[in-house]
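REVIEWER CHECKLIST
Item 1: Sequence provided? yes
Item 2: Single chain? yes
Item 3: Sequence as submitted:
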Amino acid sequence: MIYPIVAYGDPVLKKVAQPIVKDSELDVKQLIEDMFETMYSSNGVGIAAPQIGLSVRLFVMDPENMDEEDERLKGSKRAFINPKMIEETGDEWPFEEGCLSIPGIRGDVLRPQTITINYFDENWIEKTEKFSGLTARVIQHEYDHLEGKLFIDYLSAMKRRLIKNKLNDIKKGIVKVDYRMKFSK
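Item 4: Structure as written out by the authors:
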């Protein structure tokens, strides 16, 4: 099932998401499938559960198409259940980020080069892995969604003032995208 993407302005995007209980009523495997389908249909490289209106600690990513020459991106498709950021190291480097929930707005965000993260995969197997470069960046961006943070929170005050009207338009549903969106009342 393809979910509509929750637009900027919905309170779910600013809440800290809750952990998923392994044996809960939530069909996590189906949700992961649906999130990948939603992400691909929106031309995204990652999507977090809050972006489809669910305040749970889950995100998926597949950044392989970001840079087809970067071998580190090959085979990086993953689901992250209840992730915990262990460490962020290395020099911070800028990269222009965007977000399916904030269409039409992009901005340079500084993030550390390398991360170590603990999570459960779609089979509830616990893993601790180290990632760097673009893969680490996608993980950091999606992890932020679980913490109630958006990439625009990292922008300078001046840049935020410059995009204020665009953000207000997104809140009101005045935005053109190639995918379904859900706007808060």
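Item 5: Key structural point noted by reviewer: The chain has one domain: 5-180.
Item 6: Recommendation: ____
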